[in-house]
């Protein structure tokens, strides 16, 4: 948990929106051991960071999502597919909080649709 807090402080200390998103991705990644659903937060913030760093935001976000999906192992796909759909779990990172709106939500919905989440 301490590493996640360090990443949160890093997000507050940087100025670039892409750097903030990258720091938040690191924070989500460090929280995966505590709750697997943070893996989707990591993916969404990484895609947001890529989008913010590029000239064509949507193309960069979409390319990052495709890259992530193409590089997932079968075990990762299975684990992520077992998570509840975004916005349907009242507790945890997949609830109605920050991940459930804007570009983060779009990314998570795309990943979950590709993986068939909530259908297993």
Into which percentage range does the β-strand content fall? Answer: under 5%
Radius of gyration equals 14 Å
Describe the main β-sheet briefly. Answer: none
Number of helices: 6
H/E topology pattern: HHHHHH
Can you tell me the number of structural domains? 1
Say how many strands there are. Answer: 0
Q: Tell me the overall shape.
A: globular
Unreliable parts: none
Structural class by sheet pairing and helices: mainly alpha
- Provide the helix percentage: 55-70%
Average pLDDT rating: 85
Structure description:
With 120 residues, the protein is an all-alpha fold. 65% of the residues lie in helices and 0% in strands. The protein has 6 helices and no strands. The chain is globular and about 35 Å long.
Keywords for this entry:
120 residues; mainly alpha; 0% strand
Could you give a short description of this structure?
Helices cover 65% and strands 0% of the residues. It is mainly alpha-helical and 120 residues long. Helix 3 packs across helix 4 (57-70) and helix 3 crosses helix 6 (102-115).
């Amino acid at each position: 948990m301490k590493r996640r807090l360090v990443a949160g402080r890093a997000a507050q200390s940087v100025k670039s929106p892409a750097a903030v998103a990258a720091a938040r991705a690191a924070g989500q990644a460090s929280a995966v051991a505590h709750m697997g659903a943070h893996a989707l937060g990591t993916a969404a913030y990484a895609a947001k960071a890529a989008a913010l760093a590029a000239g064509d935001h949507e193309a960069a976000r979409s390319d990052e999502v495709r890259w992530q999906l193409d590089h997932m192992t079968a075990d990762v796909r299975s684990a992520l597919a077992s998570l509840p759909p975004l916005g349907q779990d009242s507790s945890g990172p997949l609830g109605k909080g920050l991940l459930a709106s804007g570009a983060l939500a779009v990314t998570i919905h795309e990943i979950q649709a590709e993986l068939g989440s909530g259908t297993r």
